[in-house]
């Protein structure tokens, strides 16, 4: 994967460090918190989750939801700026979360206590650009789980994306800025671009950030999960447990134990 080899995890970290200031606005942080509370309440109850790792926590949206539901959360992200924003949110909301700046390759060294669940949501997993990185991350996820623990993965349905190859993914206008998310399709990878447009001193200014995505499909993920020692796999089209359709579902959600 020549194109992806040019992108180290340091470049991925730099990409998200640069987005951290605007990230909450981009994802509709406050509105999503209200919408997704009932979904996570069901998840926590269904899988009896009392402790969890949020791998790729970003500014802490899912970590905060889990902590609000009484789950003991270790929140991990490679971006220092993202973790700093998480700390601010936790302080504002008076929630106790253990924040850690780390990559997934050192997860088993970072998490000292076994947990009931590892969450890796928001299309985080495709930032791992090689089979070796995917295998190591999933192996590390399993290593920190209790015997009955689960890993919950949420990513885009790349079978559908690679079939359609639509370039513009979405355009959002928030707080005086316009965010354009678009893809460049390479031979074996996707360049994920974020274009931010805004006004400065009555002039239009823009900033373009790019990182690489590994368009990992269900069949490949099942192979990696098996290699990591997961034997029971449930498939869904969303965190609300909608059925997964590889031709129609926008998301792929996997619960593995």
Q: What keyword list fits this structure?
A:
seven-stranded mixed beta sheet, four-stranded antiparallel beta sheet, alpha/beta, globular, disordered N terminus, 257 residues, 9 helices, Rossmann fold, 2 domains, single chain
Structural features, described:
- This protein has 257 residues and is an alpha/beta fold.
- The chain folds into two domains: 2-156 and 215-256, Vaccinia Virus protein VP39 (Rossmann fold, 3-Layer(aba) Sandwich), CATH 3.40.50; 161-211.
- Helices cover 38% and strands 32% of the residues.
- The chain contains nine helices and eleven strands.
- It has helices spanning 2-5, 9-26, 29-46, 61-68, 80-93, 107-110, 131-143, 158-164, 218-228; strands spanning 51-55, 72-77, 97-101, 115-120, 145-156, 168-174, 177-185, 190-200, 203-213, 233-236, 251-256.
- Strands 3-2-1-4-5-11-10 form a seven-stranded mixed beta sheet, sandwiched between helices. A four-stranded antiparallel beta sheet has the order 6-7-8-9, covered by helices on one side.
- Helix 3 (29-46) crosses helix 4 and helix 7 (131-143) crosses helix 9 (218-228).
- It is globular, with a radius of gyration of 18 Å.
- Residues 1-6 have low confidence and may be disordered.
In a nutshell, what does this entry contain?
It is built from 9 helices and 11 strands.
Give the arrangement of secondary structure elements.
Elements: H1 2-5, H2 9-26, H3 29-46, E1 51-55, H4 61-68, E2 72-77, H5 80-93, E3 97-101, H6 107-110, E4 115-120, H7 131-143, E5 145-156, H8 158-164, E6 168-174, E7 177-185, E8 190-200, E9 203-213, H9 218-228, E10 233-236, E11 251-256
Parallel strand pairs: 1-2, 1-4, 2-3, 4-5
Antiparallel strand pairs: 5-11, 6-7, 7-8, 8-9, 10-11
Helix pairs in contact: 2-5, 3-4, 7-9
């Amino acid at each position: 994967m020549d194109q992806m080899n040019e992108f180290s995890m340091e470049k991925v970290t730099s990409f998200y460090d640069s987005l951290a200031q605007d990230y909450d606005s981009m994802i509709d942080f406050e509105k999503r918190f209200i919408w997704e509370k009932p979904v996570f309440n069901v998840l926590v109850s269904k899988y009896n989750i009392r402790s969890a790792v949020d791998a790729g926590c970003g500014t802490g949206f899912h970590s905060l939801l889990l902590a609000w539901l009484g789950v003991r959360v270790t929140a991990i992200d490679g971006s220092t700026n993202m973790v700093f924003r998480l700390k601010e949110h936790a302080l504002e909301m008076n929630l106790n979360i253990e924040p850690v700046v780390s990559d997934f390759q050192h997860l088993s060294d970072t998490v000292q206590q076994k947990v009931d669940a590892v969450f890796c949501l928001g299309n985080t997993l495709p930032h791992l650009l090689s089979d070796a990185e995917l295998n190591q991350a999933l192996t590390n996820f399993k290593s920190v789980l209790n015997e009955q623990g689960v890993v919950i993965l949420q990513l885009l349905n790349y079978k559908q994306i690679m079939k359609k190859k639509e370039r513009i993914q979405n355009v959002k206008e928030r707080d005086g800025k316009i965010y354009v998310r678009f893809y460049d399709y390479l031979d074996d990878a996707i360049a994920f671009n974020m274009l931010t447009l805004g006004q400065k001193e009555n002039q239009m200014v823009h900033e373009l950030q790019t990182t690489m995505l590994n368009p990992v499909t269900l069949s490949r993920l099942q192979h990696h999960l098996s290699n990591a020692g997961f034997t029971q796999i449930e498939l869904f089209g969303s965190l609300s447990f909608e059925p997964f359709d590889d031709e129609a579902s926008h998301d792929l959600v996997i619960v593995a134990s």
